[in-house]
Amino acid sequence: MSLDLFAGIPVTDYAAARPWYERFFGGEPSFLPNDVEAVWEVAEHRYVYIVQDPERAGNALVFSFVDDLGDRVAALAERGIAPVEREEYGNGVTKVVFRDAEGNEISFGGSG
Q1: What is the reported pLDDT for 23?
Q2: Cα–Cα dist 112/52, whole Å
Q3: d(CA 16, CA 20)
Q4: Over the stretch 55-69, which tens digit does the pLDDT of each residue have?
Q5: Which of 77, 78, 83 is CA-nearest to residue 109?
Q6: How far apart are CA 94 and CA 59, in angstroms?
Q7: Residue 36 to residues 9, 43, 71, 72, Cα–Cα distance (Å)
Q8: Which of 89, 91, 92, 104 has the smallest C-beta neighbourhood within 10 Å, fewest atoms?
Q9: Residue 82, phi-psi category: left (phi > 0), alpha (psi -120 to 50), beta (remainder)
């Protein structure tokens, strides 16, 4: 069975939000379905997209568990994006939270 996963992030102003997400994901979108939507492939068959949807903007929660947490956080810092929160759990897992200007949350978890 094939499965493609798309996680959507609603934003108020697509044109204003897109540059932050390009910095966050480290490049241009993988594809542009229309004039108010941009899609990044974050792993094979797994996508995160932004879409202009003012009524729903600012409420997204997207979480990914990764095996290279330190490298991802360092790469984001190099692109000028700092986490807003870091949680350490007793089992050796760390969660690092980032938010766009509207409050949409994208976080990564992993060891260390």
Answers
A1: 98
A2: 35
A3: 8
A4: 999 999 999 999 999
A5: 83
A6: 22
A7: 12, 22, 31, 27
A8: 91
A9: beta
Instruction: Output the pTM of the full model.
Output: 0.93
Q: Are 97 and 24 in contact (CB under 8 A)?
A: no
For 66-96, the pLDDT digits (tens) are 999 999 999 999 999 999 999 999 899 999 9
Predicted confidence at residue 112, as pLDDT, reads 62
Q: Cα(101)–Cα(112) distance, rounded to whole angstroms?
A: 27
Across the beta sheet with 5-11, the strand order is 5-11, 46-52, 37-43, 31-34
Q: Cα(9)–Cα(63) distance, rounded to whole angstroms?
A: 12
Cα angle vertex 108, ends 30, 7, to 5°? 45
